[in-house]
Amino acid sequence: MRADSGAVAAAHAHQFEDAAQQRDAVTLGMWTFLVTEILFFGGLFLAYAIYRWSFPSAFALASRQLDITLGGVNTVVLIASSLTMALAVHAAQTGAGRALLGFLLLTILLGGVFLGIKAVEYRHKFEEHLIPGASFHMPVSEATLSGDIPPDQAIAAGVPATALSAPAEIQRHAQIYFSLYFAMTGMHALHMVIGLGLLAWLALQCRKGRFTPAYFAPVEIVGLYWHFVDIVWIFLFPLLYLVGRHA
User: Fold this and answer.
1) Which residues contact 22 (CB under 8 A, 6 or more apart)?
2) Structural domain boundaries in the chain
3) Which whole number is the average pLDDT over 92-115?
4) CATH topology for 18-241?
């Protein structure tokens, strides 16, 4: 894939002395933006830490309502997308336009798979009445409440449905957990959607031959953003899915 004649001329905007200065400026700008994102997600993580410390038993029981298999698969998918994004940046640096487009499209595909799995998880929570609100109800067996077996094993063992009811206090605390779950994963999903939009724009520009070894800053900057979103999930997965799993 060949770059158009204006690609090199557009290697840096008129307000910059050269392409290196422009690259430093946009990189600094992205890192500054990511710091604000860290502060934003940090508030959610702090709220989670406070409530988890306050209601450890309810949070552990609520966490067991999540599908750890789907969460684990999504973790692998995002790690793989970070690899393809890194390969896309390398392809842009070396001027491999065809490889760049391929890795961008593969990253978009993996991001779409992640959001699809997350949509399935959300649908399950809606069907199981685990959406915070008047209809919220978390089914938990007596064996689970005593810490002997998780709820999924209790159901598989044939525990009567009438026994699957958590006390009102645990129900209230579990709603706090799921409120944080939907807030944190929902905000992460929103960032994923934005990232997919940016990747689609990069793919379009790549098809037009806009990126060369002299001008690949947009690919690198979007790569930083995508890696940040992936790292956020690396923290979300153990915090939300693995609560009390060691016990």
Assistant:
1) 11, 12, 13, 16, 217
2) 18-241
3) 95
4) Four Helix Bundle (Hemerythrin (Met), subunit A) (1.20.120)
Cα–Cα distance measured from residue 211 to residue 206, given in angstroms and rounded to the nearest whole number: 6
CA–CA dist 187, 232 (Å, integer) = 10
The Cα 63–Cα 121 span in angstroms is 13
Length of the chain: 247
Is the pLDDT at 149 greater than 50, yes or no?
Answer: no
Gap between the Cα atoms of 195 and 225, Å rounded:
7
The predicted model scores a pTM of 0.81
Which of 107-116, 127-136, 139-148, 235-244 bottoms out in mean pLDDT, i.e. has the lowest? 139-148
Contact present, 85 and 184 (Cβ < 8 Å): no
Dihedral class, residue 3 (left if φ above 0, else alpha if ψ from -120 to 50, else beta): beta
Residue with tokens 């896309």: 88
- As given in the structure block, the two tokens for residue 177 are 């957990």
**pLDDT tens, position by position, 117-126:** 999 999 999 9
